[in-house]
Amino acid sequence: MLVSASRRTDIPAFYGRWLMGRLRAGFCEVANPFNAAQVSRVSLAPADVEAIVFWTRDPRPLLPHLAEIRAMGHEPFFLFTLMDNPRELDPRCPGPDVSVPAFAALAETLPGRVAWRYDPLVLTSKTPPDWHRAVFERLCARLAGLTDRVIVSLVEPYRKIAGRMRALAEAGFPPLPVDEAQTVSLLADLRDMAAARGLRLAACCQPEAFEAAGIAASRCIDPDWIASRTGRRRAAAKDPHQRPRCGCAPSKDIGAYDRCLFGCRYCYATSNFERARANYGRHDPDATAL
Fold first, then answer.
1. SS3 state at 107
2. What is the DSSP string of 45-92?
3. Which residues of the chain have pLDDT under 70?
4. pTM of the predicted model, to two decimals?
5. Rounded Cα–Cα distance for residues 159 and 135 (Å)
6. What's the rounded Cα separation, in Å, for the pair 31 and 37?
7. Nearest 5°: phi and psi at 48?
8. What separation in angstroms does the CA of 109 have from each of 42, 136, 141?
9. pLDDT tens-digit map of 54-103
10. CA angle 64, 48, 54 (to 5 degrees)
11. Is 6 helix (H, G, I), strand (E, B) or coil?
12. What Rg value do the Cα atoms of the chain yield, rounded?
């Protein structure tokens, strides 16, 4: 079993104490996000877990615990989202001057096990394609040698974020009309910038047009990547619970929605920021479920 920690909230940034307690206990409980009364028990015993894939914007709280996690017999991997968006889009995320040293520390501790996510691309009047080209090139220069892969995607127009995007437009960040040719051109340029720094760019859940332009499809929870580091081969399969074009391997997510405090305006995992703060305030780090 692969464990995802987590698509639903940033466990390394906000719930490290809970995570370590559950790893030491050897299990956690996870409520069905669509039926809170349905709770499943998930083994976190190293014998049952092939790898733990962490999704984060700030791994620093978890860094002191990585040696213990490895000593338990676990195989950690990180998908590290690192961008430099305006505060109107990412009001509380660490900026590159904090995130790049954290990335370097993580990459030194877990060489070959950290992937960079420049994700999602939010195209607005103040963050147009050329803005992303300039930011991405700067970040590529700073992350060169720390990872060999970068994953990008386009922001998904989920219904739960529509109101926030309208508010952004009123604040001077109107979204740009979707133009497939310009988007493919942007991603092709990012691909070439990445390649010049020794990074392989792949697009998460991208349309077929990106593949036609030579932009590889990403498998964020990638069994080949994991096997190359752990030596544990598994049958290639697609997670049936993800979006149709998602290539990720099946995994068990141990997180919960409406728990993240970063407040990214385009976040699909937080439907209400006040609810997320209230849930965080009620969080019991000794509970079996997040």
1. helix
2. -TTT-SEEEEEES--GGGGGGHHHHHHHT--EEEEEE-----TTT-SS
3. 209, 235-236
4. 0.95
5. 28
6. 7
7. -100, -10
8. 27, 24, 21
9. 999 999 999 999 999 999 999 999 999 999 999 999 999 999 999 999 99
10. 40
11. coil
12. 18
pLDDT of residue 218: 86
Please give the pLDDT value at position 82. 98
- Identify the DSSP state of 161: G
What angle is formed at CA 226 by the lines to CA 48 and CA 149, rounded to 5 degrees? 150
Let me know if 238 is exposed, middle or buried by CB neighbors in 10 A (0-12, 13-18, 19+).
middle
Collapsing DSSP states into helix, strand and coil, what is residue 4? strand
Fill in the amino acid letter for 144.
A
> How far apart (Å, rounded) are the C-alpha atoms in residues 289 and 254?
8
Separation in Å, CA 97 to CA 59, 101, 137, 143, 198: 14, 7, 15, 12, 22
Q: Is the dihedral of CA 227, 230, 231, 232 positive or negative?
A: negative
Q: Which helix H or strand E contains 220, and what residues bound it?
A: none
17 burial level (CB within 10 Å; 0-12, 13-18, 19+): middle
Distance CA 181, CA 228 (A): 35
The whole-angstrom distance between residue 208's C-alpha and the CA centroid of its chain comes to 22
Q: Which of 90, 28, 93 is nearest to 59 (CA)?
A: 93
Cβ atoms of 53 and 2 within 8 Å: the answer is: yes
Go through the chain and tell me how many residues it has. 290
Task: Identify whether the C-beta of residue 136 lies closer than 8 Å to the C-beta of residue 85.
Answer: no
**β-pair partners for 246:** none
